[in-house]
Amino acid sequence: MISKNQIRLVRSLELKKNRKREQLFVAEGPKVVGDLLKAGYKAHTLFALPEWEGAASVMSAVSGTSPAMTEAPTVTLVTPDELRRISFLQHPQEVLGVFHIPVDTVGETVAHDWPAGQLAIALDGVQDPGNVGTIIRIADWFGIDTIYCSPDTADIYNPKVVQATMGSIAHVHFHYCSLAALLSRVTCPVYGTLLDGEDIYRQQLSKEGIIVMGNEGNGISQEIRPLITHRLLIPNFNPDTETAESLNVAVATAITCSEFRRR
């Protein structure tokens, strides 16, 4: 049985100000919830249907895979109607988890925070939650485990972002910081996709660096553009015909990451 206070708490976490105040976020579905538990995220409460297979084994699964999790979370069994009342999904998926937001590097990020010898992604004002979640999933797929976010990038703990990651939020590290401060201090290559860039398929690409992806409407900001050391262009293959004006930022990220990993 779920209480009114529990319903009120879960629904309040749709808003960033409430997530910040409570230091909690919502994840839904066996895949996303399971991946977060395995990665050591501390659950506040799990609301589950009786048929959720993870309910009976959550204690052993958590204690067996994550030394950071010292106790099993509380599992509150709910009815389908109760799950629908707290879910942010059109079709709820057996379990909804309320998790503690982990302590992160928020604020000033210095150069040595960048994982030397590896690729990282920087999101410069990417505001659509679906795009941010998809980019996290793309980063996870291509083995990129660090993402830097400008303060005006969508909150990664927005329920829509969490859901779009399909569990990849558990595998990637995030840092909200001043991208200008970070990029002005790193010594690695800084890549960015720009309309005046060079054809990505003809450029030498390194195994390390930071790939900057810009805002959906305006691209990389004027503040960050001078800090791009390698300007890349994903070419339009039908320049003489009328085509789409641009690529979705998540699609562009996938193409860019794929080209880096293909080399």
Task: Please name the defining characteristics of this protein.
263 residues; alpha/beta; 6-stranded parallel sheet; 4-stranded mixed sheet; 9 helices; 10 strands; 32% helix; 21% strand
What's a quick, concise take on this entry?
With 263 residues, the chain is an alpha/beta fold. 32% of the residues lie in helices and 21% in strands. The relative contact order is 0.14.
Kindly report how far apart the N and C termini lie: 54 Å
Strand content: 15-25%
Record field, number of beta strands = 10
Task: Give the overall shape, derived from the CA principal axes.
Answer: elongated
* Biggest sheet character: 6 strands, parallel
Low-confidence stretches: 61-69, 105-112
What strand order characterises the main sheet?
A: 7-6-5-9-8-10
Q: What structural class is derived from the secondary structure elements? A: alpha/beta
Number of helical segments with 4 or more residues:
9
SSE order: HHEHEHEHEEHEHEHEEEH
Write down the overall mean pLDDT: 89
Helical fraction equals 25-40%
Radius of gyration: 20 Å
Task: Tell me about this structure.
- With about 260 residues, this protein is α/β, with parallel strands linked by helices.
- The protein is about 30% helix and about 20% strand.
- The strands form two sheets. It has a six-stranded parallel beta sheet with strand order 7-6-5-9-8-10, with helices on one face. A four-stranded mixed beta sheet has the order 1-4-2-3.
- α6 links the parallel β5 and β6.
- α6 runs parallel beside α7 and α6 runs parallel beside α9.
- It is elongated and about 60 Å long.
- It starts with a helix and ends with a helix.
